[in-house]
């Protein structure tokens, strides 16, 4: 292994900090704004559309800035993490502080929350993905980094479980707010450590030459449009982003609506709330464990085949659950657990194909330094709108069957609404899985070695 222990620890620290706040944000923001702030559907849709547009602007913009400028906070990946970390942690807290009760204020609150969150999420995510690519080009190192990061992120996975128990499923919102502050502070400390010690192999080469300035050799002479066209002309990149876009649809649906659906389809009399809290918190941990334990499969079959098999499972599991029906709550819980774990575990492997695409781009265009951020940023440009479209689609369907009327606690869900929820839970992964399997089959980039020894 060519990656230093300090490099591994730094990358893992950033991964834990990122996981702590991102999993909690995605899990709670929809429920908080729907069930606590009672946002109107109009404002919810406006916020999601605005969020989608901002996504289309900031991903390639920030990617180009990181790859093509030498500002104080973009000179190296390490400095991007160092300066972005505290702002990222603060953006996590914005949704949990109410601004007011009027529909307009609540709507503006959601818009501002999503804008601030996505700005920092994008900048930090691009820096971390580029760090992963540039710590080493060796397949062995990248698989090892993925494993270590997944092991470390187990520490970040219980943030949802912690929030569930301290707030009693948001019944004690003040306790929820206090816990989010603690989580944000811990996340910032981890980003600080990573920002002080995360040196890529390109940084280390310059440090060995005793250069005072270890800023990266940026591609200053290439325009944003030229780099973007080069990336978009890659058929492997297109195959990957189509797969990733639909993965985002599925992942966003599970993150935002699993709790909402379970609250309606599974009564406390059948499965207690304490068991469900443990269940919600265990999802992130188990998906991480799957990646760790699945390392031998990556060594034997490659990430390409493992990811493709996960889509076969997703389709078959959805069909089986739909045939079983929603009157078997324990089967439904098991299905949701396995579906979420499969989605999370597969997503945990996506850095590897993108890193290979970035390496291929560097070789093809004979660059001194890979445009890692541009590759990851262009991917995000296409795929991140899925995280807005998915909740818009789901909320529109649920509200058409009366979900918005459940704000009145005296009203219970109708059988039609419950059936629609169950149908969505089953057919969402079926349809998405079929599309993903098809698009992923066109991906052709492979690592340098057929077998990866861990």
From TrEMBL:
<feature type="transmembrane region" description="Helical">
    <location>
        <begin position="279"/>
        <end position="298"/>
    </location>
</feature>
<keyword id="KW-0472">Membrane</keyword>
<feature type="transmembrane region" description="Helical">
    <location>
        <begin position="421"/>
        <end position="443"/>
    </location>
</feature>
<feature type="transmembrane region" description="Helical">
    <location>
        <begin position="333"/>
        <end position="354"/>
    </location>
</feature>
<feature type="transmembrane region" description="Helical">
    <location>
        <begin position="310"/>
        <end position="327"/>
    </location>
</feature>
<protein>
    <submittedName>
        <fullName>Uncharacterized protein</fullName>
    </submittedName>
</protein>
<feature type="transmembrane region" description="Helical">
    <location>
        <begin position="81"/>
        <end position="99"/>
    </location>
</feature>
<feature type="transmembrane region" description="Helical">
    <location>
        <begin position="145"/>
        <end position="163"/>
    </location>
</feature>
<dbReference type="InterPro" id="IPR036259">
    <property type="entry name" value="MFS_trans_sf"/>
</dbReference>
<feature type="transmembrane region" description="Helical">
    <location>
        <begin position="7"/>
        <end position="30"/>
    </location>
</feature>
<keyword id="KW-1133">Transmembrane helix</keyword>
<feature type="transmembrane region" description="Helical">
    <location>
        <begin position="175"/>
        <end position="196"/>
    </location>
</feature>
<feature type="transmembrane region" description="Helical">
    <location>
        <begin position="237"/>
        <end position="259"/>
    </location>
</feature>
<feature type="transmembrane region" description="Helical">
    <location>
        <begin position="105"/>
        <end position="133"/>
    </location>
</feature>
<dbReference type="InterPro" id="IPR040035">
    <property type="entry name" value="TMEM180"/>
</dbReference>
<keyword id="KW-0812">Transmembrane</keyword>
<dbReference type="Pfam" id="PF13347">
    <property type="entry name" value="MFS_2"/>
</dbReference>
<feature type="transmembrane region" description="Helical">
    <location>
        <begin position="375"/>
        <end position="401"/>
    </location>
</feature>
């Amino acid at each position: 292994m060519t990656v230093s222990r300090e490099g591994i620890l730094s990358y893992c620290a950033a991964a834990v900090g990122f996981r702590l706040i991102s999993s909690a944000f995605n899990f709670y923001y929809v429920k908080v704004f729907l069930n606590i702030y009672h946002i109107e559907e109009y404002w919810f849709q406006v916020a999601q559309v605005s969020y989608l547009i901002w996504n289309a602007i900031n991903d390639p913009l920030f990617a180009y800035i990181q790859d093509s400028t030498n500002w104080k906070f973009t000179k190296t990946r390490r400095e991007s993490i160092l300066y972005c970390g505290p702002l990222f942690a603060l953006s996590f807290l914005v949704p949990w502080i109410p601004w007011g009760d009027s529909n307009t204020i609540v709507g503006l609150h959601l818009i501002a929350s999503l804008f601030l969150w996505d700005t920092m999420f994008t900048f930090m995510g691009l820096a971390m993905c580029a760090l992963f690519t540039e710590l080493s080009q060796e397949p062995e190192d990248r698989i090892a980094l993925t494993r270590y990061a997944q092991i470390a992120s187990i520490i970040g996975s219980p943030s949802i479980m912690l929030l569930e128990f301290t707030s009693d499923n948001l019944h004690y919102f003040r306790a929820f707010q206090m816990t989010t502050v603690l989580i944000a502070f811990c996340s910032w400390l981890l980003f600080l450590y990573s920002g002080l010690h995360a040196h890529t192999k390109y940084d280390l080469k310059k440090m060995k030459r005793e250069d005072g300035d270890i800023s990266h050799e940026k591609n200053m002479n290439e325009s944003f449009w030229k780099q973007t066209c080069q990336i978009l002309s890659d058929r492997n990149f297109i195959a990957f982003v189509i797969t990733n876009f639909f993965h985002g649809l599925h992942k966003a649906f599970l993150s935002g609506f699993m709790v909402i659906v379970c609250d309606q389809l599974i009564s406390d009399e059948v499965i207690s709330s304490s068991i469900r809290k443990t269940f919600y918190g265990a999802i992130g941990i188990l998906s991480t464990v799957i990646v760790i334990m699945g390392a031998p499969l990556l060594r034997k079959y490659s990430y390409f085949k493992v990811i493709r098999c996960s889509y076969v499972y997703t389709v078959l599991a959805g069909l089986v659950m739909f045939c079983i029906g929603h009157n078997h709550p324990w089967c439904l819980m098991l299905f949701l657990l396995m579906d979420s774990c499969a989605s999370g575990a597969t997503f945990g492997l996506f850095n590897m194909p993108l890193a290979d695409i970035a390496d291929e781009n560097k070789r093809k265009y004979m660059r001194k330094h890979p445009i890692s951020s541009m590759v990851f940023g262009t991917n995000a440009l296409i795929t991140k709108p899925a995280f807005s479209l998915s909740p818009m689609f789901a909320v529109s369907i649920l509200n058409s069957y009366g979900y918005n009327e459940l704000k009145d606690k005296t009203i219970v869900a109708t059988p039609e609404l419950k059936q629609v929820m169950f149908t969505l839970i089953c057919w969402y992964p079926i349809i998405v899985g079929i599309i993903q399997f098809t698009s992923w089959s066109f991906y052709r980039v492979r690592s340098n070695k057929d077998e990866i020894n861990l």
